[in-house]
Design goal:
Layout (H helix, E strand, L loop, with lengths): L4 H21 L4 E5 L2 E4 L4 H29 L7 H23 L15 E3 L8 H43 L2 H6 L7 H11 L4
Antiparallel strand pairs: 1-2, 1-3
Helix pairs in contact: 1-2, 1-3, 2-3, 2-4, 3-4
């Protein structure tokens, strides 16, 4: 767990940066002042959807990249990484959301002195739960991706070692190899024949 502490701190920093990036890249919808109040026009509703899409895209890149890098640096992958990565990136999405709202446009309800027909930028908002769930989802995708890569490499290494071991066994089993290793080339039958030849005949 201590090994993961710097990575969690780095995730918080990345979440703050992501919130600022969201406020910079997102194009908030424009609200129009009318007699009944400030309303979101149909023409500007598409921008509100674009704000959410920008938040999701930033979350995909951040969550997948962070999880992949952290998982790659770990010496082993235990089951507890799944809920840990999910909770950590889920909390990071909330941090980025709050930072983006803080750095983005102010609440239009607090605007004063607007005449009918004036427009004001809407506050950055994520009005659904699904965009926040994308962050932990892609963190788990990054974790699984690295685990699969590590697993394939381990199996290849094991197969290679097995092939090398078999090759060494085949080489050592040859008569020439036995001679080079200091072992006699003759078989046990030849040795027993020499012993019998040295014995006196009775």
């Amino acid at each position: 767990m201590r090994r993961l502490l710097p990575s969690l701190v780095a995730l918080v920093v990345l979440a703050v940066v992501a919130g600022g990036l969201w406020a910079l890249l997102a194009k908030p919808a424009q609200l129009e002042a009318r007699e009944q109040g400030i309303v979101l026009t149909e023409a500007a509703s598409g921008r509100q959807f674009g704000v959410v899409v920008t938040f999701v895209l930033i979350g995909i890149v951040l969550s997948f990249g962070w999880a992949a890098v952290v998982a790659w640096r770990l010496p082993r992958h235990d089951w507890f990484l799944v809920p840990l990565f999910a909770v950590a990136t889920g909390a990071a999405s909330l941090v980025a959301w709050q930072v983006g709202m803080l750095l983005g446009p102010d609440d239009p309800a607090a605007a004063h002195g607007l005449a009918i027909g004036d427009t004001v930028s809407a506050q950055l908002a994520v009005d659904a739960v699904a965009p926040f769930l994308v962050w932990p989802l892609f963190a788990l995708v990054g974790l699984v991706f690295v685990v699969l890569l590590a697993g394939d490499g381990g199996e290849d290494g094991a197969d290679e070692s097995l092939e090398i071991g078999r090759g060494q066994l085949d080489v050592e089993s040859t008569p020439a190899a036995r001679h080079e290793n200091g072992r006699p080339q003759h078989s046990g039958l030849v040795e027993r024949g020499r012993v019998r030849a040295l014995l006196p005949e009775w």
